[in-house]
Specification:
- In chain A, 68% of the residues lie in helices and 0% in strands.
- Chain A is mostly helical.
- Chain B starts with 34 loop residues before the first helix and ends in a 20-residue tail after the last helix.
- Classes of the chains: A mainly alpha (255), B mainly alpha (517).
- Chains A and B meet through α1, α3, α6, α7 and α11 of A and α2, α3, α5, α7 and α9 of B.
């Protein structure tokens, strides 16, 4: 057990807590904030089932983005779908291999390339399209840089300098069972350490960054509301309180 | 005609996306509301004169921002989840027309988002430069005032955003914050004040309305030989018609009103307008104030109860219809005292279409043969409401009605109609002369699409179903070489083609002397 292994073990515990706790705090905030008016962007579904179908098309196929900009859609879709394949491949570090996982391994292996390709495309837009250059903050570039670095370091482990994945698996298996990071700890491989450090960084940044778009899209009222305001009355808590007390303005409410 | 350049049309039907330029449209924005307009709307008025700020403006602005983001899920989520992908950047008609960078939807949102980040997020508090967060200063407020009054809240950007981020929601919040620090907009707030005081946006008092409808009855009788009633404040009618006050006197709006009256006359459905609710438009939405919007909406409820009607029908008006369709039930409901067999409220086009379908109206389409029509989907109808009982009915029903009364109809290019429709450039509280430059530039994409069908398909007229669209088009399209009379109401077309068979209105004129008999 090395000092670096203990450090990384603690780092990943912290990162996991921050990711889960941070996202939970934001999701609770979104959940608890009222939506006083029906504002779906129409034409919108008139049933709850229709809304689920609309959200599915948005989340899986990026339908609105497809309508908006085909090039951007291509890069964004490439990146996200590749990311999913890569994440599925990585699940072998946390669960026992099964047939499905074995089947998906090669897809995840090569998806690393398409993931980086998608990211490079997205990044190139930030320099090449004047409108996108104008709206990009340093953090927008850094986020892409971080993801590219994670992707490239991951690919190096697969295709350039093989990492001892059995040992990595033992390390994370140890963490999951609170077995203190496995017997041997992490392999002393700089690429593995760099890759893992960047991933931990991404996890920590997630809840305080625009990466919140992932859970956030499910709370977007323009997309997730049923278009039935004439059929069903929709009143938020604070608006109901105005009515109940017969007041016109919020500052007139008896607290 | 103007000290700025009016964009040139190509007739190709689409506009090139301009290269971004900084601060082309930087300015002071529209006239600022005086303290007495603010008071009428229950906004703070403890500032000296229009253009000065309330004491502790910074604290109050941030308090209001905190309040609004806790009250509106849309605002909170939209401020957080934008990834700056740029999908919206070429979708705003004001950006296309002006090329001002801050008129790109995401950049417009960022004016507010940068301040939100600075004061309400971890990253913005500790790493402001990194995430593009800025302090709230008077210059920032000035930018808000200027650029949030270059947004017509048309929601075209929300259609194309992968997360459905709606700039209108951000623009409404910004305007509400501005209203709370002394930077209310004169045009909107003055109009809402008139609604509260007199009952409609134009400040037409009851006697003027009675005068107008009497004049209309005489005109229609002179024209057709038939006495078509325009009932006002008549209790016990089946339908309460709520229509934009522009319908009472502006062109071509008034021809639409005549059309509604003829349809009611022919169907035999009794109806009335009301001096209490002699305005369908609800400018409360433009300034983002739920409370104002509710107060304006409650007049409709009051009128429906007072006149003991069974149904509420709204006239041709875009924002009015969004508020009516999407919000009226919320703001002024429940409407359990009305006839539940009909949609509450109903659009006049739904009403007319159902009677055309039932064969209750005799139509002579050749009366409109002097025209080749196209149709302008008004933003708030297209992207913020519905007609009929299925998604997209708001696109079909107006077209069905137009085709039922006209022989010649052509749609504009597909990416400029339906929910991708371009704004007229005058919505959202921008229909004021002090914003003429943005109105002229913002209409460019719509004018381009119109030019395309006039050049290639022989279109002569464009029908619209929004009072603001009609007013904006008649005023601004002439800058592009069109004439004012090329804009028509949909019910004006109905009016032309409708053959009046019923000689006498079912609704007898009430006794002039008011005698009981």
């Amino acid at each position: 057990m090395t000092f670096v292994s203990i450090l990384y073990g603690l780092l990943f515990w912290a990162a996991t807590l921050i990711l889960i706790g941070g996202v939970a705090v934001k999701v609770r905030q979104y959940w608890n904030t009222p939506a006083p008016l029906k504002i779906p962007t129409t034409p919108a579904p008139v049933t709850q089932g229709g809304v689920v179908w609309r959200m599915f098309r948005e989340v899986v196929f990026f339908q609105s983005l497809f309508r908006s900009n085909k090039t951007l859609w291509l890069f964004a879709f490439l990146f996200h779908i590749s990311l999913w394949l890569v994440l599925i491949r990585h699940s072998r570090y946390f669960v026992d291999m099964n047939e499905l996982l074995v089947f998906l391994q090669p897809f995840g292996r090569y998806a690393g390339f398409t993931m980086v390709l998608g990211l490079v495309g997205l990044w190139a837009r930030r320099f090449l399209v004047d409108r996108v250059r104008y709206i990009s903050a340093p953090s927008d570039h850094l986020m892409l840089a971080l993801l590219v670095a994670i992707g490239v370091s991951g690919l190096m482990m697969s295709f350039v300098a093989h990492a001892d994945v059995t040992q990595v698996k033992a390390f994370f298996g140890g963490m999951l069972t609170f077995g203190f990071f496995g017997d041997a700890g992490l392999p002393a491989d700089p690429i593995v350490l760099l890759h893992l450090f960047l991933v931990a960084l991404l996890m920590i940044i997630f809840p305080i960054s625009k990466l919140m778009h992932a859970p956030g899209i499910f709370f977007s009222p323009t997309r997730n509301q049923v278009d039935n305001p004439r059929e069903k009355r929709h009143v938020s808590g604070w608006a109901l309180e105005l009515e109940r007390q017969g007041k016109t303005y919020l500052d007139e409410l008896k607290k | 005609m103007a000290d700025y350049e009016v964009p040139k049309l190509t007739g190709e039907g689409y506009c090139e996306v301009p290269a971004v330029r900084d601060d082309v449209m930087k300015g002071k924005g529209p006239y600022i509301a005086k303290p007495d307009f603010q008071t009428a709307l229950h906004f703070p008025a403890d500032f000296d004169a229009a253009g000065s700020l309330v004491p502790n403006w910074k604290e109050r602005a941030l308090d209001k921002m905190a309040d609004l983001k806790g009250r509106y899920r849309s605002l909170q989520v939209f401020l957080d989840i934008c990834v700056k992908c740029g999908a919206c950047t070429d979708k705003c008609h004001y950006f296309i027309g002006t090329s001002d960078a801050k008129n790109m939807p995401v950049a417009r949102q960022d004016l507010l988002r940068k301040v939100y980040r600075r004061y309400f997020t971890f990253a913005g508090k500790y790493f402001p430069k990194l995430v593009g967060a800025t302090d709230l200063t008077e210059e920032v407020l000035a930018d808000w005032y200027n650029y949030y009054h270059q947004c017509s809240q048309c929601r075209r950007c929300s259609v194309f955003c992968p997360y459905g981020i709606d700039t209108a929601e951000i623009s409404m919040a910004a305007r509400e914050i501005l209203d709370h620090v002394g930077y209310g907009q004169k045009y909107c707030n003055e109009i809402i004040g008139k609604v509260f005081k007199i009952g409609n946006n134009l400040g037409l008092p009851g006697p003027a309305l009675f005068d107008t409808v009497e004049g209309l009855e005489e005109d229609v009788e002179a024209d057709t030989g038939i006495k078509v009633r325009f009932p006002l404040d008549e209790d016990g009618a089946e339908v309460l018609l709520v229509t934009p006050s522009a319908d009472f006197f502006a062109e071509p709006h008034i021809d639409g009103l005549i059309g509604y009256a003829k349809v009611f006359h022919e169907t035999g459905v009794t109806w009335t307008m009301s001096t209490i609710a002699s305005e369908a438009g609800n400018f409360g939405m433009f300034i983002g104030s739920y409370e104002t919007m509710r107060r304006v909406s409650l007049r409709v409820r009051e009128a429906a109860i007072k006149h003991k009607v069974k149904r509420i029908v709204f006239g041709e008006c875009g924002h009015a219809w969004r508020v009516a369709y999407s919000f009226l039930n919320t703001l002024a409901g429940p409407f359990d005292f009305l006839d539940q067999r009909y949609p509450i409220p109903q659009h006049i086009l739904e009403f007319t279409w159902s009677h055309i379908q039932a064969g209750n109206l005799q139509i002579d389409k050749t009366e409109n043969d002097d025209k080749v029509l196209t149709f302008h989907d008004s933003c708030n109808v297209a992207r913020g409401s519905r007609m009929g009982d299925y998604p997209g009915g708001q696109f079909d029903i107006p077209r069905h009605v137009i085709r039922a009364v006209c022989n010649n109809f052509v749609d504009m290019p597909a990416d400029t109609i339906h929910d991708a429709t371009f704004c007229c450039g005058g919505g959202g509280g921008l229909l004021t002369d002090d914003l003429m430059e943005i109105r002229v530039k913002g209409i460019q994409p719509r004018a381009e699409a119109l030019k395309h069908v006039t050049t290639h398909n022989g279109v002569t007229h464009m029908a619209a179903i929004c009072a603001i669209c009609k007013s904006q088009f008649t005023k601004v399209l002439p800058y592009y070489g069109f004439t004012m009379d090329q804009i028509v109401s949909v019910h004006q077309l109905v009016s032309n083609a409708l053959v009046l068979q019923r000689q006498v209105s079912v609704q007898a004129r009430p006794d002039e002397d008011g005698d009981e008999d």
